[in-house]
Amino acid sequence: MNFRHKYMFLLPGLLVLLGILIFPIGFTVRLSLSSWDSFYPGLDFIGIENYIRLFTDDLRFWEAFGRLSMLSLTTVFLQYVIGFSLALMVWKDIVFQRFFRVLFLIPMMTTPVIMTVIWRTFFHESLGPVNDFFNLFGMNPLWLSSEILAKFTVILVEVWQWTPFMFLLLLAGLLSLPKEPYLAASIDGAGPIRTFVYVTFPLMAPISIGAIIIRLIEASKIMDTVYVLTSGGPGTSTETSSFYIFIKGLREFQFGYSAALSLTYLIIMIISFTIIAKILVKLMVRGN
Amino acid sequence: MGYFYTTLKYLAVTLWSVFVIAPFLWAISTSFKDFQSVTNGATYIPWVDFEPTLEGWRALWKSPAQGGVAIVEPFFNSVFVTAAGSAISILLGTLAAYALSRFTFKAGPIRNGDITFFFISQRIMPPVVLAIPFFIMLGKFSLLDTLVGLILVYIVLLMPIAVWIMVDFFNKVPREIDETALIDGCNPYQAFYKVVLPNSIPGIVVAGMFCMIFGWTDFFFSFILTFTEVQLLPVAIVALNSSITPWWSLSAAALVSVAPLVVVAFIVERFLSKGNLSGALK
Asked: Which residues of A touch B134 (CB under 8 A)?
């Protein structure tokens, strides 16, 4: 179908999005070639100096990036495993099916930063319920101020918040699966485990890949939770890339340098997602 | 299915339910506490562990000068920005999605798929990359710290979601519907408005819900682009967290902000059970 008014449908949205985006992106590129900071605000031209500094003299950025990779891969893996298990459990044959489905969806409807504020009181080291429990055994773990436990707490909060999203996509996928393969499997006498390995999992592979990629993209932006829960601390032990760029740009006002960081980060992200998507496709659809 | 498997399943589902509910129960309990019951270590059950008061809830209406937290105005700011941002995104997104699903676009090497990808790929953009240019750009147009500025930013945030869901949805609405309408003498606008749109309500509802979720729960942009004149709910509450606000009013405020969208969970489940969502999400 074709007609000459087709642009009337497409252009309003496209132009608005382009209009709001073109300047920021172009400006970021130009900004990354300048030394704009709070002492000398202005668009001078210093070539690729910012990039040289970033690649040769900024260990903190690369550490933050490594931490981000660790955090996002771990959380998304946990979300996928838990989300898929939960989806399978409430898929069929369960009492209070609708109750559990609604309940499992609720965390993704809540505002991450606000729940994090509550989690902070929940994990409070002297007044929170978690340590009230651990005190029974004479322990007092420092959930927010020890380097390892702070990472654990960030992961736990992220898993609580976003497993529902995985659950939703996977349950929607399960509910739309065709019936015939299951009929064939039961005629062949396959048990529940074999049915899952040979029927459900392969049929769910495309949806799984989509869900994992979407979650990885969102997880790679993680910063709200970190900001409220630990402010990147103790030290820099929970600092992620976004949070580091935020500190450089909007706390220390090194606009030029943080623009260079942003672009490098964005490009690394796009390349990693392409590679991860390829690997996932290879891993999960090898059967067909 | 053996007893062992069934027991394990119910055990797992119950454990996860406890984990999901725990922070809410804690917040509800805390919102009725007073100074004594918070600072003497963790307490849980009202009337047994502590004497409940309504102080935390009363503080929501009071101004900070009276010891309150004043979240009524931020609440309505959030409602307005989310509603306006979602409405504009859905309107423009639905039109663009319809065009991308029905008509062929060609410009050099660019095809429909590329344009769709351009829309959706905006979700890859980390907020922090856009934050500084937005900060400077809105400053130039004197839109920093205004509702209009925030709505503009929310359109960038939400339109990709609307386009993503609606393109998939329109691809599943049979083309015969439009073609019949055209043969019956409608012009393309009428065909869209009178025939396609009424058949797309489920898709629009799903897209609308997702826009509302992502708009209502956004923190970063409102945190950076507003200061004192305009405050959205998440920013207001996080600001309480860093001041010496008592936990009881903090918890009450958090619950008020989280409650409206919990309703959305029920609607999503409804769609899920009817099988409408799987179509709209794939």
From this structure: 24
